[in-house]
Amino acid sequence: MLRSNTCGELRIEDVNKTVTLSGWVQKIRDKGGLIWIDLRDRYGITQLLLEEGRSDANVIEKARQLGREFVIQAKGEVIERVSKNPKIPSGEIEIDLAEINILNASKTPPFTIEDETDGGEELRMKYRYLDLRRNPLMKNLALRNRLSIETRKYLDSQSFFEIETPYLIKSTPEGARDFVVPSRMNEGQFYALPQSPQTFKQLLMVAGYDKYYQLVKCFRDEDLRADRQPEFTQIDCEMAFVEQDDILNTFEGLVKYLFKEVKGVDIEKLPHMTYAEAMQKYGSDKPDIRFGMEFVELNELAQGKGFKVFDESELIVGINAEGCGNYSRKQLDKLTDFVRKPQIGARGLVYVKCNEDGSFKSSVDKFFDQEALKIWAEKLNAKAGDLMLVLSGEADKSRKQLNELRLEMGERLGLRDPKNYKPLWVVDFPLLEWDEDSKRFHAMHHPFTSPKTEDIEMLESHPGSVRANAYDLVINGVEIGGGSIRIHDRSLQKQMFTHLGFSEQEAQDQFGFLMNAFEYGAPPHGGIALGFDRLVALFAGQDSIRDFIAFPKNNSGRDVMIDSPSPIADNQLDELGLKVVK
Ligand code: ASP
Question: If you take atom 4 of ligand 1, which residue's CA is the nearest one?
Fold first, then answer.
């Protein structure tokens, strides 16, 4: 080894030891008579010291040739520091340098390798290997490593098998576009990269591997956002001979185990909330239940009083923002602007301030007297000093808009503490979802999800009302994962494909292999997949997953470091039987 110790481990107890460290030069301070070098590696920083007159003149000369990020080997004795630095664990000692070997020189990096860097996003992505040297990123990847190890430990303890499934497959419809790979040996034909190993894990159940998991890359060609990457990692699982509750209990166990082992946090029993309830009370299928502020519907109280906006609305729905009754005109205008932003799209915002003296001041005083507003307040459980905020319009839209406003108010009121974790299961999702563009129903989860037995009879008459045995794990308003009990019966699966608009031929061409497998003893089964990158980011209390992935893509799906995607040579195209249309 080119070192006896790391740059993070030496302490006051090590004084008088002769050690060899290797690492990167973080900083050099040359104060004439004294030279200090901060040497950094993955484990921390140790200060090296040279003193004119006392240290070897050749070593001093070598030190004066060093620049930032040079890779060096440093030998010397651990000594107690005169002025200690309580901010770093090795701050009580330094190394009295006896020897320096330059292992490699370095150009001056394009940005500082410090916790707070001066590098912009694009530059840091281009030099990702330098950005990864920074402490915050190392911490993120260490957390990722910890979580993957603990996940494997837990699943192993529950007798799960980790089995790899192929990356070169055929398209699996999970709602997104596929990335495709041309096949040289089969000209004109393409593989697809898996959006998830869905069909393979179901086939493993047919094969009798009754508890499968995999930490697996999945690929989806979607527009990117802060919490999305074209390739991302899932904790993908499937179990046979189970019902929904068995899966929920097993993965509730995983969630609790991870929080306990990795963060030392005890998580209470996860509540179950139906999709219908989540939409009604929070306007979202991923409710943030760290705080209440539940929706209250006001149609009965607010309609028929001559206020046209309300009278023409399908839904009038409000929340109570506790303690916000003293909001100024300006603050209220800002909230109105917030809900009117095009991304949210409300037409306006009705407010009712509950004054300290028991009276009310509202934006609809013309239509609602004090008595009427008092009844609203009772319904919304608003007290003196509170602020009622009301939206109206089409039901679905108003709920979605109020969800945004609720989250914004929760944020303003400090009710969304990232260190407070409130996971829950959202259950009973609809099986199908109407798609306006294609004018047909799509599977809300995926086409292999089973309908609730008692709802099957509505498949023909009210397809939109059929509920699925499908569930999501939601933590602090973030959808961490989802899954379902699957169809394991060939004829029901065939019927599902028909409902989803597949012709018999299309279903056979795309999923014949799965339906055939169902004829050879498919056990009842179900599973779940958790977004691993999101889970890691959540454990670190952050929204963006990018800094929890070693080499992520930018917003245009590009890797600016290796400059990909990129054109390929004409002969490569020829070999693949592809032509470029110029
Ligand atoms: N394959 C699904 C997904 O990626 C998860 C599942 O149903 O197990 O969302």
Answer: 196
